[in-house]
């Protein structure tokens, strides 16, 4: 990151999506414009908004609506899908059960992962084995979320084709053995509004970077809570912009890019009196992928290897098993 940022860029990805998976996509002028914008955003801010993403606004809104309906339920209803190590760390966590930097976060959530069959990755994957726990109420919760996950996964895959081109590689760089079977994650999160004994600047989620490749955030309109830290140490508000998702890059892209792209610290502080919901999709590498700097990225750093090899599933398990108070 050679420059600082004071705002988060907005990128219309529709020209990229129109040409993805086509043989000549890397020569299309519309695609190349998006690629240049992605490159600058990833180098400078690590964050950007995407518009022109093609996911129906009605679905984007309904996902937040059913999320709010679930969190409005009594606690005894919500804990019917309580998360635990036995559930493969899938399910519901109450307020304060998620831990970041050793501190309880002021949010409740449902965590979902790509389903993993028993023995799929042997003993290596045992911690994350299981199927997602969906509430019976609202009745359409499961079907709606599964439709949304499918569309988010495809959107993220196509954005990663643009990021591959931005790094100087072929568009299929993050397909196949790297992220063709993405061990995606989705967190369905509720942040209480400021009330009672809660103090101004109580943190809904402490400052952190994300584990994987690319994150897409579907946040409430009109509540400004997501904050991004620039190089000067200033917290920049990632305000909600209708028709967009907030996107940011994660730790595994830092390794694959050999530090050409670095994730940016961010946090959530809900100082609004309103309850805030956020549905966050994380596009991750394959569970068993060994992530190490790509050859064409090492060439751009004079052959210097800045980051060591890491197996994504091991990285994820080390985080998940220390992130919750269950």
What are the defining features of this structure?
alpha+beta; four-stranded antiparallel beta sheet; 9 helices; 28% helix; single chain; globular; eight-stranded mixed beta sheet; 326 residues
Q: Can you put this structure into words, describing what you see?
A:
This protein is an alpha+beta fold and 326 residues long. The chain is built from nine helices and 16 strands. It has helices spanning 14-19, 29-44, 57-71, 75-78, 141-167, 176-179, 251-256, 295-298, 312-320, and strands at 10-12, 47-51, 91-93, 99-100, 103-104, 108-113, 185-191, 205-208, 214-219, 226-229, 235-237, 245-249, 266-268, 276-283, 290-291, 310-311. The strands form four sheets. Strands 1-2-12-9-14-7-6-3 form an eight-stranded mixed β-sheet. Helix 2 crosses helix 5 (141-167) and helix 3 (57-71) crosses helix 5 (141-167). The relative contact order is 0.18.
Beta-strand content estimate: 15-25%
> Averaged pLDDT, please?
93
Order of helices and strands: EHHEHHEEEEHHEEEEEEHEEEHEH
- Report the total helices: 9
Shape assignment = globular
Helix content: 25-40%
Low-confidence stretches: none
Major sheet: size, sense and barrel closure? 8 strands, mixed
Number of strands: 16
Global Rg: 19 Å
How far apart are the termini?
38 Å
Derived structural class: alpha+beta
Task: Give the strand order of the largest sheet, numbering strands 1, 2, ... along the chain.
Answer: 1-2-12-9-14-7-6-3
Explain the layout of strands and helices.
Blueprint lengths: L9 E3 L1 H6 L9 H16 L2 E5 L5 H15 L3 H4 L12 E3 L5 E2 L2 E2 L3 E6 L27 H27 L8 H4 L5 E7 L13 E4 L5 E6 L6 E4 L5 E3 L7 E5 L1 H6 L9 E3 L7 E8 L6 E2 L3 H4 L11 E2 H9 L6
Parallel strand pairs: 1-2
Antiparallel strand pairs: 2-12, 3-6, 4-5, 6-7, 7-14, 8-13, 9-12, 9-14, 10-11, 10-13, 15-16
């Amino acid at each position: 990151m050679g420059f600082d940022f004071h705002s988060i860029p907005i990128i219309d990805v529709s020209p990229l999506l129109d040409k993805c998976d086509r043989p000549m996509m890397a020569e299309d002028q519309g695609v190349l414009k998006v690629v240049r914008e992605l490159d600058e955003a990833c180098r400078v801010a690590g964050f950007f908004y995407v518009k022109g993403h093609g996911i129906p606004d009605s679905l984007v809104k309904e996902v937040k609506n059913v999320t709010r309906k679930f969190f409005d339920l009594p606690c005894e209803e919500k804990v019917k899908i309580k998360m635990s190590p036995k559930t493969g760390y899938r399910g519901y966590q109450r307020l304060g059960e998620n831990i970041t930097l050793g501190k309880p976060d002021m949010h409740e959530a449902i965590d979902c992962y790509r389903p993993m069959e028993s023995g799929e990755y042997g003993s290596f994957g045992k911690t994350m084995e299981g199927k997602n726990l969906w509430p019976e109420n609202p009745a359409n919760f499961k079907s709606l979320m599964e439709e949304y996950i499918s569309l988010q996964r495809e959107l993220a895959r196509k954005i990663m084709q643009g990021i591959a081109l931005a790094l100087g590689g072929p568009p299929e760089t993050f397909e196949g053995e790297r992220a063709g079977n993405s061990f995606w994650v989705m967190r369905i999160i509720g942040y209480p509004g400021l009330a009672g004994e809660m103090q101004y600047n109580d943190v809904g989620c402490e400052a952190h970077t994300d584990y994987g490749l690319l994150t897409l955030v579907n946040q409430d309109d009109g509540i400004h809570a997501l904050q991004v830290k620039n190089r000067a140490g200033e917290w920049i508000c990632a305000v909600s912009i209708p028709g967009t998702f907030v996107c940011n890059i994660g730790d595994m892209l830092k390794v694959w890019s050999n530090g050409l792209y670095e994730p940016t610290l961010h946090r959530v502080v809900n100082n609004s009196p309103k309850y805030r919901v956020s549905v966050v999709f994380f596009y991750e590498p394959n569970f068993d992928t060994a992530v190490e700097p790509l050859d064409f990225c090492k060439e751009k750093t004079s052959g210097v290897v800045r980051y060591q090899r890491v197996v994504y599933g091991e990285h994820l398990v080390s985080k998940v098993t220390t992130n919750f108070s269950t």
